[in-house]
Amino acid sequence: MDRAPGLMSLKMELFFAALILAYLQSFVLSDSQGDALFALKLSMNIPNNLLADWNQNQVNPCTWSNVICDKSNNVFSVTLKGNGITGGIPKELGNLSNLTSLDLENNRLSGEIPPALGDLKKLQFLTLSQNNLSGAIPESLAGLQNLINILLDSNNLSGQVPDPLFQIPKYNFTGNHLNCGGQNLHLCESYSSDSGDSHKSKIGITVGVVGGLAILFLFGGLLFFVYKGRLRGYKREIFVDVPGEVDRRIAFGQLKRFAWRELQLATDNFSEKNILGQGGFGKVYKGVLADNTKVAVKRLTDFESPGGDAAFQREVEMISVAVHRNLLRLIGFCTTTTERLLVYPFMQNLSVAYRLRGQRAIDFSRLEEEDDVLLLDHVKKLEREKKLDAIVDRNLNKNYDIQEVEMMIKVALLCTQASPEDRPAMSEVVRMLEGEGLAERWEEWQHVEVTRREEYSRLQRRFDLGEDSLYNQAAIELSGGR
């Protein structure tokens, strides 16, 4: 008679444990930004699987391609120019309240411009030129007080252009059937070549040509000296800032993407005086960020990762989740076409050797002092070793069915997979708890787990700096355990 209440209590406890573990593994639920961008994807016919990473189940749209966010994870730029995209512009884009730039130029978009774009009060750049858009220009666009550039040329737009749009510093409505305010239909744009300004134009062209030639000669001289420096044995290192980073920061959970310029300033242009050490993987520099945070910047010599920039980002994201008392936690990275940099916290007068031989720091992420695994990995380990009793609350005094315990634990682990797409839906969870389909899902998950552990082991070996020789061992060691 006492067995039934105990079993019911056990089921409830394990079920809520599964839900808690699932929420610990997941990110914040997708917000209106992700919904708006996903609506854009659904309304368009996008070739070549261009936006494959625009996944509605993936929480943060700031990790999606062609999307740029600020440091608060607000989407402020969307660029999809020149991709041959067909379809229409959805009204849901009006929900991107922090958007400052929207560029859909040189596609094959059709339909009307949605009036909801007038809700983008922070919008500064609107580029919809060279498409097949039709209808009138919405009056709501006239209320965009921050707009400084609107390009709607080469479409099939018709009707009257709202008068306030002519006050924008740069506009172009050519190649349409628009009335720019006169009695007849004619083309209009913000710049013209008046005869009174022809003399000034000639002077400007002359100055531009002379200036261009001067810059060309200076650049040629710079290349000459760089080449001579290389012939002399690389006595000086020359760092060149490259475009493409701007000040873009993308959050991978706790991982931050730094701009190249930000790290260049932090390390005083990678000055030799800031070198903490070097080895086979590159040099380590001490740096101070704009908020006075001290960091150690590892500049990798082998920047050509297989798979390019996207593969490198996936690898550093996996490394960032590695937690060990003898490892410095990776806090960020920087990647350009020619650079790969890793950013760690700066540890004054501490090294890996000290942490191995010295007193252990308090680490509340461990279950016990001697455990080197996180909670989820600890549960997985106990399940593999069939030590299920160690997972169950001792207050139950073994008043439970061990087979039901095993079933509940398996369902809970399936609900804690890293990717939201791989987790079972709640309806499937109910079926598995009733004994339907659990064996198949569990076997499939086991194969995934083996692959994940093998890949993690490979990445750990790749970034292990155990063979590095450092100039200053006492300052910092950015490597795996010796």
Automatic annotation (TrEMBL):
<keyword id="KW-0472">Membrane</keyword>
<keyword id="KW-0808">Transferase</keyword>
<keyword id="KW-0418">Kinase</keyword>
<dbReference type="InterPro" id="IPR032675">
    <property type="entry name" value="LRR_dom_sf"/>
</dbReference>
<keyword id="KW-0067">ATP-binding</keyword>
<feature type="binding site">
    <location>
        <position position="298"/>
    </location>
    <ligand>
        <name>ATP</name>
    </ligand>
</feature>
<keyword id="KW-1133">Transmembrane helix</keyword>
<dbReference type="GO" id="GO:0005524">
    <property type="term" value="F:ATP binding"/>
</dbReference>
<comment type="similarity">
    <text>Belongs to the polygalacturonase-inhibiting protein family.</text>
</comment>
<protein>
    <recommendedName>
        <fullName>non-specific serine/threonine protein kinase</fullName>
        <ecNumber>2.7.11.1</ecNumber>
    </recommendedName>
</protein>
<dbReference type="InterPro" id="IPR013210">
    <property type="entry name" value="LRR_N_plant-typ"/>
</dbReference>
<keyword id="KW-0547">Nucleotide-binding</keyword>
<keyword id="KW-0812">Transmembrane</keyword>
<keyword id="KW-0134">Cell wall</keyword>
<dbReference type="Pfam" id="PF07714">
    <property type="entry name" value="PK_Tyr_Ser-Thr"/>
</dbReference>
<keyword id="KW-0732">Signal</keyword>
<dbReference type="InterPro" id="IPR025875">
    <property type="entry name" value="Leu-rich_rpt_4"/>
</dbReference>
<dbReference type="Pfam" id="PF12799">
    <property type="entry name" value="LRR_4"/>
</dbReference>
<keyword id="KW-0677">Repeat</keyword>
<keyword id="KW-0964">Secreted</keyword>
<feature type="signal peptide">
    <location>
        <begin position="1"/>
        <end position="30"/>
    </location>
</feature>
<dbReference type="InterPro" id="IPR051824">
    <property type="entry name" value="LRR_Rcpt-Like_S/T_Kinase"/>
</dbReference>
<keyword id="KW-0433">Leucine-rich repeat</keyword>
<keyword id="KW-0723">Serine/threonine-protein kinase</keyword>
<dbReference type="InterPro" id="IPR017441">
    <property type="entry name" value="Protein_kinase_ATP_BS"/>
</dbReference>
<dbReference type="GO" id="GO:0004672">
    <property type="term" value="F:protein kinase activity"/>
</dbReference>
<dbReference type="InterPro" id="IPR000719">
    <property type="entry name" value="Prot_kinase_dom"/>
</dbReference>
<dbReference type="InterPro" id="IPR001245">
    <property type="entry name" value="Ser-Thr/Tyr_kinase_cat_dom"/>
</dbReference>
<dbReference type="Pfam" id="PF08263">
    <property type="entry name" value="LRRNT_2"/>
</dbReference>
<feature type="transmembrane region" description="Helical">
    <location>
        <begin position="203"/>
        <end position="227"/>
    </location>
</feature>
<dbReference type="GO" id="GO:0016020">
    <property type="term" value="C:membrane"/>
</dbReference>
<feature type="domain" description="Protein kinase">
    <location>
        <begin position="270"/>
        <end position="482"/>
    </location>
</feature>
<dbReference type="InterPro" id="IPR011009">
    <property type="entry name" value="Kinase-like_dom_sf"/>
</dbReference>
<dbReference type="InterPro" id="IPR001611">
    <property type="entry name" value="Leu-rich_rpt"/>
</dbReference>
